[in-house]
Amino acid sequence: MLNVKEFIPRVAGLAAAQARFETEYPAYRATSALDGLRAGEYQRLEAEGHVYLDYTGGGLYAASQVRAHHALLERHVFGNPHSQNPTSLAMTERIEAVRACVLDYFNASPDEYTLIFTPNASGAIKLVGEAYPFTPGGHFLLAADNHNSTNGVREFARARGAQVTYIPVTPPQLRLDPRALPGYLALGRPGADNLLAYLAQSNYSGVQHPLELIALAQARGWDVLLDAAAFVPTNRLDLSRWKPDFVPLSFYKIFGYPTGIGALIVRKRALAKLRRPWFAGGAITMVSVRAGKHRLWPTVTGFEDGTVNYLNIPAVRIGLEHIERIGLEVIQQRVRLLTEWLLENLLALRHSGGRPLVKIHGPQNMHCRGATLAMNFYDPGGRPWDVFAVEQLANAERISLRTGCFCNPGASEIAHDLPRDGLDAFIESEPLPIPPRLNDYMLARYGQPASATRVSLGLVTNFADVYAFYAFASSFLNRPAGAA
Question: Is 407 one of the annotated active-site residues of the chain?
Answer without folding.
Answer: yes
